[in-house]
């Protein structure tokens, strides 16, 4: 049986991977810090974008909760 690697993650799954809150992740999606794709009513984060952020190659501002 062939295993298929995941190509997208939900915003909440991305938040868990990045160690930030759900609200921080949705805010980062909204402002473009986390690249995302809208699929119907769902918002997903491409796996390659999440990997780039985690490896530090995202070229983005660090994620943090606003004061």
Low-confidence stretches: none
Instruction: Tell me how many strands there are.
Output: 3
Shape: globular
Q: Compute the number of helices.
A: 3
Mean pLDDT: 88
Helix/strand/pairing class, anyone? alpha+beta
Helix content range of the residues, please? 40-55%
Evaluate the radius of gyration.
12 Å
Strand order of the largest sheet: 1-3-2
Largest sheet: 3 strands, antiparallel
Number of separate structural domains: 1
In whole angstroms, how far apart are the ends? 49 Å
What's this entry about, in short?
This protein is α+β, with helices and mostly antiparallel strands. The chain is built from three helices and three strands. Helix content is about 40%, strand content about 15%.
